[in-house]
Amino acid sequence: MGKLIIIEGMDGSGTTTQTKMLANYLMGLGYKVLSTAEPTNSSIGQEIRKWLKEPLEKEPDLTLLLDTPAHIAYERIASRQGPKDFYETVPMLNRLRERYVHFVQLEAKNTALIDGSASPNEVHNHVVSVISNKLERAL
User: Fold this and answer.
1) Architecture of domain 5-36+43-134
2) Dihedrals phi, psi of 16, to nearest 5 degrees
3) Is the pLDDT of residue 139 over 60?
């Protein structure tokens, strides 16, 4: 059976970028990869959200939290086109970051904190290193 690796973080932390980079890396090594993202607010997305609230059939093997300072995440969000969500402010992002870090402290066994403020390639190298160390038999 495969491994369930979750990449988590607030908006602007680099989760989308790192998920794509990790999927490409693992596929390049010959692994089959199923990559998903949080559903949208569309009617289909709402149905998926309801389904996701049910307990996971498989606990994550590893959860990676991309820890990015609020001001950096905000700068990344601000550079995107389109409307911003109500929580995409520095104070709110700071509160979200604190909650994510608190989660990692509670679930330290299967979680790892990754510095999300570095360049995408540096973050990717750290992600691969953590996965290799924590799940060395899997990779």
Assistant:
1) 3-Layer(aba) Sandwich (3.40)
2) -65, -45
3) no
